[in-house]
Amino acid sequence: MNDTSERSWWGWGLTDAALSDDECRRYGALLPGLPTDPITPPTVADLRLRAPRIQAPPALADRCSIDPRDRAGHTYGKAYRDVVRALAGRMDPVPDLVVFPRGEDDIVATLDWASDADVAVVPYGAGSSVVGGTEYDGGDHAGVVSLDLSHLDRLHEVDRQSRAARIGAGICGPALEDALRPHGLTLRHFPQSFEFSTLGGWLATRSGGHYATGRTHIDDFVESMRVVTPTGVDESWRLPGSGAGPSPDRLMLGSEGTLGVITEAWMRLQDRPTFKRSSSVVFTDAEHAFRAVRGILQANLTPANCRLLDPGEAQLSGASRRGEWVLVLGEESAHHPVDDALALSVEIARDHGGTVPAGTHEEPGSPPPEVRDGAADTWRSSFIRMPYVRDALARMSAISETFETATTWDRIVTLYDDVRAEVGRAVSEITGAPGLINCRLTHSYPDGTAPYFTVVAAGQRGAELGMWDEIKAAAMEVLTRHRATVTHHHAVGRDHRPGYDRQRPERFAAALRAAKHELDPAGILNPGVLID
Amino acid sequence: MNDTSERSWWGWGLTDAALSDDECRRYGALLPGLPTDPITPPTVADLRLRAPRIQAPPALADRCSIDPRDRAGHTYGKAYRDVVRALAGRMDPVPDLVVFPRGEDDIVATLDWASDADVAVVPYGAGSSVVGGTEYDGGDHAGVVSLDLSHLDRLHEVDRQSRAARIGAGICGPALEDALRPHGLTLRHFPQSFEFSTLGGWLATRSGGHYATGRTHIDDFVESMRVVTPTGVDESWRLPGSGAGPSPDRLMLGSEGTLGVITEAWMRLQDRPTFKRSSSVVFTDAEHAFRAVRGILQANLTPANCRLLDPGEAQLSGASRRGEWVLVLGEESAHHPVDDALALSVEIARDHGGTVPAGTHEEPGSPPPEVRDGAADTWRSSFIRMPYVRDALARMSAISETFETATTWDRIVTLYDDVRAEVGRAVSEITGAPGLINCRLTHSYPDGTAPYFTVVAAGQRGAELGMWDEIKAAAMEVLTRHRATVTHHHAVGRDHRPGYDRQRPERFAAALRAAKHELDPAGILNPGVLID
């Protein structure tokens, strides 16, 4: 984060990076029927925030804030529906207090106090949840605390031999990479939220990262974790692998703040890659493109990047305007050249009817390693910018949101077609006009893949939230009917609860509730998320 | 299993494959001070089995057996201490009944009946547990049933596109591979117990398989599971990846029959490899050998085979008699030649001081793909034969057993030295003479590795069990002091409970007990394993 900018309380990222009113208008003009002018975000002073209903206990007083800016900034995550509500000044779930613990003792004290005082505690990393993961709607607690872990941001220890480090859960992506760089190491976990999300948040939500194949989720990089629950502190042993009973870490991974507060973790790291190659391959139709990705994965190849953009997504991101599918492939290594590995994937893609556009450097030997092809670069910068554009569209009362899933290869074509048809129909019916429904495959596996959909449509000022909720319900319906997961890496939060409740096996739900009751008997931790 | 042989009720594998009395004597002669003649295994008719204390309910009568051979064969697993007790005719934990369900309904009926009648149910795959996983010692139930899942042995469904199959949990390794072969597919899960263990057993115990790197545990090959608990049947969705809450499957993986009975699973499969290369590299000392393996893993290479034998292990298995460390490397693919991939690993091993013995075929192009080097082949056949030799040694009243663990790279040298020193001291003190303590690395990771130790020593007839239990306690002590896992892939069972209770985080233990109580309120499932 640079010094002159600060986090937006209502929208994505940094205030300085938000689009100007004129830029909003230019994006708004791409969709027919939108208002001429963007919504002006309210200032914090404009907001009517409910007065705090609870007081911090004296021992924690200097860790707590009731500053309206802190409270407003901790009310929502950064989903489209969060931005819409914030822009409208609707701040009902505002926390009474924001607690900034300086260390584990403060967290223990907070949970002790909250358990006694019936205060809900919502763990908060950097607040970029897009699934309502940090928004209180848990019922009738006496008060709500947002537990902001940003001070737990230290790199505690590096084990160079095992290539692992003990890291505070509150550290954000850039600070983590800065701390690891002098050791020649990297976590290489780059979700789209990289700048505005924390290690603890990634772990609690089973975040999806840099690697498009192989070790796609943060789960696979965890050596051990330390977790503060309302009934005690747990720490698993640092182990490269184990078969001793069900994995303790796997119960906490994806627990989304409902079972405990992750305070630190030993993470498996990577050497910083020095050899990199990327290439793009284009296809004229879905069948061949999907088959190519499947072919690469089923050859047990594990390219670091293997992202397939459908024609709409390729166009939106600027990767191709020719109505074709674009597969962006990349290999990397800190140890050996990767030309041959990339060539194997490109060859499979060609065998399935793909063509390599002129100017794409996939041939071994020719270009310097850092030269990358245009489609990949364009897509990358667009990837980082997308959430800011989403906010600009929201200010123009457009609907702009994403949802993602995963399914096996036998179902992918049907799922892709059905999602586009049914969500498209919902968009037309609800907004009165067709919208864009684009898709990219973000992560792929030998047995299936994770499609990520973007919806852009003209909304109606004042009715955006209801419209999106209806469209989202249609999306959940088609996904769950196909038994595709309600989330591959965005987490469940509050927004995916209806689908999650259908997806989750019933006896597992009961076991999870029992575990929750054991660890959090007062039911204060992130109520409403995952478990009632 | 061939038609003319049958499973040994007291020892490993098939009765036909057991070593003759003369062979026992030849092995016994290698250790000073053992008796001249092997113990003659009792016949089933010799055994004094407690009369069954319970009767099968009429609806299950034709699924139940009280045949002494069935009951004797289901009393123990196949650990050294099991064989010793069986040879001595000590059959205290004998189950009252063996139930052979024909399908899921029979399992539901069994669990319903058992829950009402306070009957313990011990799920039984093919009975090759080496950790007391199938032996009842859970307290004072009214009776004990061994639930033998061998009839749930069908390949139900193959999804060729996703390269996955729905498979009955009771199928043994060879039958599974036979069923998959016509589809050109393989699970490629080859634990040492391959012939005498089942898919359900692998899943329940987080079995370690064929791949020495990357996807080492069966866990990573699970797409979805179906589990019968005493309170209902669960089935997870088939998903290639998901981030929807804590993984339901990961709670059942490693649950060792305490939470439910796994009846079938969708498993991720492989194409049958057609390209294979292997090579061995030798080292003069531990430091260089460990560093070479670490170097290979930290280059993010994932050879299918990467097994390091210490000098004792190399000698015992016949891989090398020159007092050197032997690293057996192998690469395989169904899609592309693997010469280059193998060459990368071999080069790293050489960079760390390894030398490739003459006659080892690692150079690209030269030998036909099926030609493998001698050390690898010798080691493989010895690997399959080892448990039969173990039984022969047990019959000579020698002590012969293994234990395994995993630790991070920063601790491996110390752990290796300390285990050999402290377990060696225990062997000397307890048996009065030094024994063999060998080690191999079976699975390795970028952040650590899994050493597997073999102990062979002269026991004393009639006192073998107590001697081994003391040696094992010394081993547990040194492992847990170093915070190395009590098991990397053998499971916890009853034998590892003391160490497991130290290793497992306390709040996780409480959560697991709560989940157990929810799923199995009568506490009938495999009591004593994992949870009290």
Task: Explain what this protein looks like in three dimensions.
Two copies of one chain form a homodimer. Chain A has 532 residues and is an alpha+beta fold. In chain A, 33% of the residues lie in helices and 20% in strands. In chain A, the strands form four sheets. In chain A, strands 12, 13, 14, 15, 16, 17 and 18 form a seven-stranded antiparallel beta sheet that branches. A five-stranded antiparallel beta sheet of chain A has the order 5-6-10-8-9. The first copy, chain A, has a four-stranded mixed beta sheet with strand order 1-2-4-3, with helices on one face. Mean pLDDT of chain A is 94; it is low at 362-372. At the A-B interface, strand 8, strand 9, helix 7, strand 11 and strand 16 of A face strand 8, strand 9, helix 7, strand 11 and strand 16 of B.
Topology:
The structure is a homodimer of 532-residue chains.
Chain A: H1 21-28, E1 64-65, H2 68-73, H3 80-87, E2 97-99, H4 104-117, E3 119-124, E4 143-148, E5 155-159, E6 164-168, H5 173-180, E7 185-186, H6 199-205, E8 222-229, E9 232-235, H7 248-252, E10 261-268, E11 270-271, E12 275-283, H8 286-298, E13 305-309, H9 311-317, E14 325-333, H10 339-351, H11 374-395, E15 398-404, E16 407-408, H12 409-431, E17 436-445, E18 448-458, H13 464-481, H14 497-503, H15 506-519
Parallel strand pairs in A: 2-4, 3-4
Antiparallel strand pairs in A: 1-2, 5-6, 6-10, 7-11, 8-9, 8-10, 12-14, 13-14, 13-17, 15-18, 16-18, 17-18
